[in-house]
Amino acid sequence: MSRLRLTYKDDDGVPLEDMEASEGTDDADLWFLPGPIEDEPDYLPPGPAPEAKEFEVVDAWRAAEAGQAAQLARVAARLGILDERLRRGPAGWRQRLALIEASDLSWLTQDRIGLDRLSLYMALRVSTVTDDAQALYRIGWTVRRLTGGPAPFARRSGVGDLETFLDRRNCTGQGERFEDAKAPSRVVEMAEREAFEDRAAGWLAMMDQAEDLHPVTRACMGFHLWHVAELSPVDDPLEAAVTAARVAIADLAPSGSAPGAIFAPIAMGGGGGFRAIGDPPARLARWLSAMESATFAALRRLEEIEAWAAAAERTMAPLSGKTPPMLRHLFTSWPLVSVQLAEKLTGAHRATVQRNIDWMEERGLIREVTGQGRYRMWRIVETRATEARSMQDRDNAALAEDILDELAALQ
Prior knowledge:
Layout: H1 16-28, H2 54-67, H3 69-88, H4 91-108, H5 115-124, H6 133-147, H7 159-165, H8 185-191, H9 196-209, H10 215-226, H11 238-247, H12 280-315, H13 323-333, E1 337-338, H14 339-346, H15 350-362, E2 366-368, E3 377-380, H16 383-410
Antiparallel strand pairs: 1-3, 2-3
Helix pairs in contact: 2-12, 3-12, 4-6, 4-13, 6-11, 10-11, 10-12, 12-13, 14-15
């Protein structure tokens, strides 16, 4: 049985198959038309790379920690030594280190608050006409958080702890209230934004996933994720740095024991640890190097203060009264001391304070650093620096004597 073939025609009687063949031939002759899309080169710029998932970010920091295990162990050992030294020392040592660290952090944020201005502001709330009130408020908050106050967060803590630590709460009885005349406008604006809680919750979730990391590594990760979470302005690393300094020392402050190190010094080792360039291994390497240098500098300062206090106690033994011991303790707690500051903190009369300071300066225990008639400030004379200068003088004298002997022998 033969099959029937049906042929479809258009209205003019032309078979449709012949029309399709002719159209294909005509399209082949259209050489001026662009070719198929898949044959053309892709000149478009690459699109945005997919964001890394949370577990991938934490895994990258775990790998970075494993690669820096030796240096991390050295940093942890020095932090332990610093913590033990502060536990055996007076509370003024912690305040002194906090003032130095806060002053160094102010240079990182372009506020440039020196130790003299910071000491006067923290003790007397004194500021000059040229001082920036917002900058002093910010660095004052830094000193308060480096010497005590609430912790940034505990294990499995909520957003409220972080808000209290950052002074973001503006409710009665919760945190430190903002004052319009003191609080910087940028911080106030960000505190009023409702999205802060969501961003803080995301940052805390990332930190909770990194609980198995060393506190130093965890602090470094938290610092570099701070601006990713938009918890502070991009050009303001102060809050992130202070929070990281408290997180890095969290395991060295057990409850019920004598207070030791409250923060891990970072800015004392330079600003290289805060550079946000490179992958996690490079950032962690810079962080550990800066923290190791900063911890070594802090230990050296404590040794100088301890040696000075022992020498000052022996030199000031003939003096009687309460003012000399209080002044000695004051000079170990504050990097720079003025007569006004000593008068307020010791409660002694200004003439008595001035007389004792002059006596200490004559004995070589302290030296003036301002070089002016009014608003003078003094600091201690470090024992190591004195010994180094005296050894250099002896070497120079011995060298001069050798030269004279050689000249005499030649004659």
